[in-house]
């Protein structure tokens, strides 16, 4: 994300509302502590730093996910970054069960360009984005296709976490690329055959019976 926000790392900001104390530690976690004398007063994690919320080429918030379990899911928190005179946690709410919303004020986001995504990317990813813009302009891709490319760019940059489905897709692509030519396939087959021969010898040396057929 934006390098100038890294100066918030290692610091924590608290907010007290009613009997609860909330603590936000940027790039780390969000916690909640019930300040009562009840024997079962809640104290736990509302989310751990996970990924950015990006909208219209702008970092609009930080997602803290995988917090303490809550019924069938984990607690999670979205931290909204807004311009303010000082660094402070200004507001906390729970818009839906176990999903929290925090508003964090900081002068670090007051400049209109302070939260732009594009400048934080590597040159290679910026080029990829430029190409996507051109394709969209030339109407060679749809708006949906453009958004998909942007999502891939953000995932590659580590700003968003790739979903498990995407990871599986990437792995399968990797495998198919490894064997895309007959020559490569033959080479791999030869190497595996040699390895099997060596393993058979090892088994014989240790007196372990081996049963198999040529098809295997």
From TrEMBL:
Residues 10-112 form the MRH domain. InterPro entries: DMAP1-bd, Gtb1-like, Man6P_isomerase_rcpt-bd_dom_sf, MRH_dom, OS9-like_dom. Residues 117-216 form the DMAP1-binding domain. It comes from the Eukaryota. PROSITE patterns: DMAP1_BIND, MRH. Keywords: Disulfide bond, Glycoprotein, Golgi apparatus, Secreted, Signal, Transferase. Its main location: Golgi. It is found in: Golgi apparatus; Secreted. This is N-acetylglucosamine-1-phosphotransferase subunit gamma. GO terms for molecular function: transferase activity. It holds the Pfam family PRKCSH. One of its GO terms (cellular component) is extracellular region. Non-catalytic subunit of the N-acetylglucosamine-1-phosphotransferase complex, an enzyme that catalyzes the formation of mannose 6-phosphate (M6P) markers on high mannose type oligosaccharides in the Golgi apparatus. Binds and presents the high mannose glycans of the acceptor to the catalytic alpha and beta subunits (GNPTAB). Enhances the rate of N-acetylglucosamine-1-phosphate transfer to the oligosaccharides of acid hydrolase acceptors. Homodimer; disulfide-linked. Hexamer of two alpha (GNPTAB), two beta (GNPTAB) and two gamma (GNPTG) subunits; disulfide-linked. The alpha and/or the beta subunits of the enzyme constitute the catalytic subunits.
